[in-house]
């Protein structure tokens, strides 16, 4: 792949969990995109996603076979995925997203991170998929 620049890919929080837990909700096209990004070190997760996962566990909406902190450490140590830091630029950009997008702070930060990286966001969130149709962020539906 020398000389070829691949588009970065960022996973929405639920897509990351599905991927690591082996759910069949991730479609063939998305799985292929994720595999290519992994092989080229272009697969990212927003720094807000571990917080979002821990919140879901604390609310009883998500459970793992071990402590959430241990699950996250293991998941984030896998080769090919990088945790994208929450920079000052991404933090501010999340408050200035163009068009109409819902007010969920985690989704705003993930979207701003995708825009910052010029990445494709793999998600099943219908609000984000609709937002991408306005041309403000590139999305790939996770289930496809």
Automatic annotation (TrEMBL):
<dbReference type="Pfam" id="PF01850">
    <property type="entry name" value="PIN"/>
</dbReference>
<protein>
    <submittedName>
        <fullName>Twitching motility protein PilT</fullName>
    </submittedName>
</protein>
<dbReference type="InterPro" id="IPR002716">
    <property type="entry name" value="PIN_dom"/>
</dbReference>
<dbReference type="InterPro" id="IPR029060">
    <property type="entry name" value="PIN-like_dom_sf"/>
</dbReference>
<dbReference type="InterPro" id="IPR041705">
    <property type="entry name" value="PIN_Sll0205"/>
</dbReference>
<dbReference type="InterPro" id="IPR052919">
    <property type="entry name" value="TA_system_RNase"/>
</dbReference>
